[in-house]
Amino acid sequence: MRVLVDVGLQHGAEIDPTYLLIGHPVYGRIGVGRIGTVDVLADYSGRVMSLSVERTSTRRIGPIVEYNAGTCTLTLLNDDGALDPYAIEQAGLTAPGVVLRVRLEHDGVTYPVWRGFVDSWIPSHDAPDHATVTVTGTDGLGRLAGVPRLAAAAPVGEGELSGARIHRILDTAGWPAEARKIAAGDTALQATELSGNPLDEAQDVATAEIGELYVDAQGDIVFRNRHAIMTDPRSATSWATFGSDSTAGEIPYVGRPGVSYDRMQMVNRVTVTRDGEDTALPAVEDAASISRHGLHAIGETLPVTTDEAALGWARWILWQESEPEFRFTSIALDARLDVDLVLPHAAGREIGDRITVVRRPPGGIVDSRECFIRSISHTWSSPDRWQTTWGLQGADRYRFFVIGHPSQGVIGANVIAY
Description:
- There is one protein chain.
- By secondary structure, this protein is α+β, with helices and mostly antiparallel strands.
- The chain has helices spanning 85-90, 140-145, 162-172, 198-209, 228-231, 233-236, 287-293, 307-321, 339-348; strands at residues 2-7, 42-43, 48-55, 57-61, 64-67, 71-77, 99-106, 109-127, 130-138, 180-182, 212-215, 221-224, 241-242, 254-260, 269-274, 284-285, 297-302, 327-334, 354-359, 367-381, 385-394.
- It has four domains: 2-138, Factor Xa Inhibitor, CATH 4.10.410; 144-226; 231-261 and 325-398, no CATH class; 269-321, no CATH class.
- It is built from nine helices and 21 strands.
- The strands form four sheets. Strands 1, 2, 3, 6, 7, 8, 9, 13, 14, 18, 19, 20 and 21 form a 13-stranded mixed β-sheet that branches.
- The longest helix is centred in the C-terminal third of the chain and has 15 residues, at 307-321.
């Protein structure tokens, strides 16, 4: 296992000898080195002492998950003083704002872990001969949130699908086309003025779609349409089973899964208003659920083009959340339990992947549930303490009819999806 850290700062780091560095006695020879691109990253791997990565999410409305900007914190060894802000500024460079990339190498495979931009670069020297630098960064969602926009001269994009709208928003924010993975989407949207915070608008589009918007481990902005959770192979089929029975091929996790059984996510009345309308559409509700559990109501304004689309959205929310659900909320992995078995999943799984988790409480119970990964957190400290925690969302209520699927494609066995 080896943690790889690269920074867009050509100072105090191992330099790729294939690049031309003007003024350098070895790498500065004309005709030997090649010209680097503007985003050349320097290798800081030999300085890394510890790291943590957080890619979190929250439940925005019922089952709809909203993803937060991912963050990274690193501690770098700086006994030689090369990473001190004074030394960096003397070299005519600036650390905040440069690209930061984290990867993990194990058994010949390199896994992307996080990519974003440096926010802060704070030195510390508690002893005369020992110094460190703490580096923090935020991924591309954080950059979107900081882009100011003025309203267009006239609204644009009437009737375009959600994926095209995400592209339009990213264009106004100056996000590079090569760092996008955008699905076409299934929801037609009203015209937009493209004003205000681009992240807020993009997240509103994801809510209307009932889709997913996040930055992946490679640093690309990802938008998945609402059917991807049922049709994309990485979400439609479980990748692995995590539990305590190694003889059955289960992969070990730490302790017990986080669980919840409450009414916090319940929704039994949904009211939707189309953006620009003064009057809400008739509420969609589950009378039996209201009678049993009391009223759990939500209201939302959506930028969709038809009443039918708005009511379809409301019915989907109601179907998912009108009754309490016992659910697994998280599991924790530690590579030291079995590095070759655990680490490829700990580092290789992505938001939206489907896994199976088995819980074995007293009484002979074997509780096996399929879940989607909804958040990812990593911590590492030298030499081999790699730990990963996944936030989970149950997959049981996503058993909609899918043509051609071996279990979800059975007529009469699954409801039709929105």
